[in-house]
What does this fold into?
Amino acid sequence: MRYFISNVIKIIPVLFLISLIVFILVRVTGDPVALMLPETATDQEREELREALGLNDPLYIQYFNYMKDVLRGDFGDSLRYNQPALGIVLERLPASFTLALSSMAVAVLLSVPAGIYSAIKRNTFSDLIITGASVLGKAMPNFWVGIMLILLFSVNLGIFPVSGSGTLAHLVLPSITLGTGIAAEMTRLIRSSMLEVLNSEYIRTARSKGLHEAFVINKHALRNALIPVVTIMALQTSTLIGGTLITETVFSWPGMGQLLVQAVNLRDMAVVQAATFIIAILVILSNLTADLVYRYLDPRIKYED
Amino acid sequence: MKFRWLVFAAIFFFFLTACNPDSSGEVSGNGSESGENELIIAAGSDMVTFDIHDHNNTSTEAIHVNMFNYLVKNDGEGGFVGDLATEWEIIDDQTWRFKLREDVKFHNGDPFTAEDVKFTLERVAKDNTLLEHGNYNQIAEVNVISDYEVEIVTHNPEPALLNRLSRLGSGMLPKNYIEENGWEHFLEQPVGTGPYKFSEWIKDDRVVLVPNENYFGEKPKWDRVVFRAIPEDSTRVSELLAGGVDIATNIPPDDWERIENDENLKLAKSPSQRVMLLVLRTADEYVTSDPRVREAIDLAIDKEAIVESLYNGAATPTRTRVTPGNVGANEKLYGTSLYDPDRARELLAEAGYPDGIEIQFDAPSGRYLKDKETAELIQSMLAEVGIKANLTFHEWSTFSEKYAEKSFGEMFMIAYGNSMFDAALALVRLKQAENVGETDYINDEVEELLQVAESNMNTEERIAQYQRVQEIIAEERPQIYLFQMDSVYGLKANINFEPRLDEMFYVDDITKN
It folds into this structure.
């Protein structure tokens, strides 16, 4: 418990640091006013708007005002939507969550059997195929996979809708797009984790006792090999979130990823800050959860010291 | 055992494909099987807001025109027809009186009156944090004469007032509804006077409108109108090919053939208000200060070739930015361009540069259709006559920042729109107060003509003044106009849609066979 609390406390400086870095990055990379007004706007119009938005204040005053509001849960208003940024980001969470979960499901369904199978059948033809496929899966960029899937399954075969959201069918292609990349990574990690277990002494002991090979694998190897999978899944959270940026844009999926991409393009500072803040919390939480689950799965792991 | 899985898989697939109540997810492409008369339009960006005063986004306005009405409408030929106003007259140089329709109700049932006009226009005229403020701060006040009569008073004579009132930012808002419920509520549940009512908005996904049965004009034709946001070009085209949308905007030239070869689809093109141009610095320290050098640059560029090779003909060469359909257009300079590389070389020699010159050339990349390719082609055409253009590309946010700071060198490329449909907006950047650091252009005749025309209430005289300015600019070239860009739409073959110069979607002008 103490471990858990001290970890939660550690989150605070991390979030603080993230907010500072993002604040500075967003401000030094472009002037939102130049983007908000059309090409034909006059200098005076730009100046008035800059003043109205408080962009003429020195950076440290802007940051001070910003942090004062953030502590009250107010990230400021989105320049694009002219509404509170936090609300806009939170509104998108369910869509991104749905996509992330189903992608993770695709990844687990593909990678766990494939990884275990290729470890058991090490150095055989099937192992070669699976390892090869996972290298290929890792090498193919998300947006390319997405566009290819659209061309095949939507335009040519007409099985799934091209883009958008609303039904389960809309979820299939984006989940596969995002899921396969992660599956590729996970397959390789699971394979090596399984190999390690298979070479361990207790497996040799089990085998030497004359136990049936299927029993050895199911009862002894599998359980132990799956423990690292939990960590791997948690580590993929940030990959998953990074992947939603591209996948959501390709499929017009109305989630946080697409929101963030457009907010960055428009220098919509409040939304970028709120979104990165939420993403940071999500990543930290998923790592914490992984720790807890890990401990539950393997009682030998103790964090008390 | 295997069989059970097969059945399961079959049921699963059936579930995925059949359980599809949502129209935007049409897979089969057979439109409205439910018998519902539905129109789906896909644009490259999401609507930004329902605050009609706080955006300058054409595709947002293209949705709003179906929900809100202006006082007057642009007839597309430089004239105006009444919408919420039935008639109007100029009382004196700074006062306009409008008579309003008396049979108009907002979607919530409130009657539309003069108070709403005052509320709407004074808000944008007075609040300088609103993005449209700069286009309305010419209005000093709006006086309610009676329930259905208003007077608009401007700070100075404002000949382009009707242009201002027939565009983005002029949709009439419900005063009582907003004051009683607050802006937040209005933004969530917007209410206007138009033929269609708000139904839902899922951000970065779709805006759905439904008919307003109490509309004062012709009865709305569609049962449901869906505006989808599909930012990725290839996805938008795929959606059209798969039959998921009726109309898709901004089809890239590379996809035209695919669409034209599909018997279920077709293309529709229209000139747009956007003109691509080069902006040159005329201050002494730049080689482009010599008008002969500027002329040489103009003559070196084969605009027809750019239009043919990069845009498949979907653009019109022009020597003015004020194109037909705008008040003050000089049609003699439209549809024509100059190209004479030999003369360009001579001009450089005459200017004292027989061995050529070197200039800085900045251009945005990814902002406009084929902007990068256009700039590269221009660079190589300039090289042909001995002008070495050091081309630097900028991502749009960097470009627009440099543009606002006015920190470019000899030449940059940009494409200007004109939502005002008036020469004033098109030429205002050439005024000396505006052009320092951009063109640095000084011509007393141009300056005087622009000053006078801006507040000249005599329409004919004003038009002549602007036409004269365009002639001088075409001759002296502080800006070199390249071509007017077309907007290109992909449609289902059974959809009748005439794209508009202003890029609006008045959905009741769109029909389905």
User: Anything to note?
Assistant: The CA atoms of residues 217 and 295 of chain A lie 22 Å apart. The radius of gyration of chain A is 24 Å. DSSP finds twelve helices and no strands in chain A. Chain A touches chain B through 57 residues (CB under 8 Å).
